[in-house]
Structure formats: C-alpha cells, structure tokens
Amino acid sequence: MPQLDYPNADYRMANLKVHGERLNAILIAKILQHQGIKTRFLQPGLIVTGTPNNAEVNPETYVNLKRVKLNDDERVIFSGFYDITPSGHIATFSRGGSDITGAVLARGLNAALYENFTDVDAIFSANPHIIDQPKPIKKMTYI
C-alpha cells in the first residue's frame, strides 16, 4: 500500500496521476463485466525503484508476476506507468511508461505476443523531435 506522506511535490503529483489511471482501469473492467465479458482488474504488483518520472523495474517484479494466475476465459485490465517502491512510495515511469508496463507484463506473464499501438500516425524514417517533417515509412516487413 502506498504511503500517504510525500517526500516532495513530485511524489504528491505522481500519486494524483496514479489514482486517475487506476480508477479508469477499474471502470473499464466494470463496463466490460456489465456487458457480460468475464473481466478482472489486476493490480500486478510491480516493484520499482527510482522517483516520480524516473522509475525502473526491480527484478523482483518478475518473481511476483510468476505468481499471477490467469484464466484462459477472462480478460485482464491493469493500470500502467507506475507502481510502488520498496519504501512504499509511488514512482512513475518516464514518458511512454504505459508502453513499458505493457512490455514488463508481457515478459512477466509469458505472453506469446505483445503488440503496442501508439497515437502517432506512422513510423517515421527519423525522430520527428530531431528532424523536421521526416518521411513516414509506408511499408515495413520483417523476416
């Protein structure tokens, strides 16, 4: 359980962001349940080190995830981009933290496939934060 005393304003802000993320995940699970879809909200119990906006996954996380029992007939909803440090504080990942959470869960739960869809319109030939208007890659294959 996270502590309610905060070392500084960054920890307080992380706590506020996390509550929104967690409540949205719970709400989505409830909506799916109401629609008759077997769904469970999962608080995965990631253990992180670091500080707000700079968390890193603690290897103990993967030990905890091995204990999670999933049913083949259920959908699992979890909240992303954060979890709790060994000292009981909430720490958040840097930008893209929900993507990090998805990859950690895929690894820890032995997913056969992890797909990550983002809100950008394309995969670009260069970083658009460095190169002005890079060309999108129109077709990509792999072997």
TrEMBL record:
One of its GO terms (biological process) is lysine biosynthetic process via diaminopimelate. SUPFAM superfamilies: Carbamate kinase-like. Keywords: Kinase, Transferase. Residues 13-142 form the Aspartate/glutamate/uridylate kinase domain. The keyword Ligase does not apply. GO terms for cellular component: cytosol. This is Aspartate kinase.
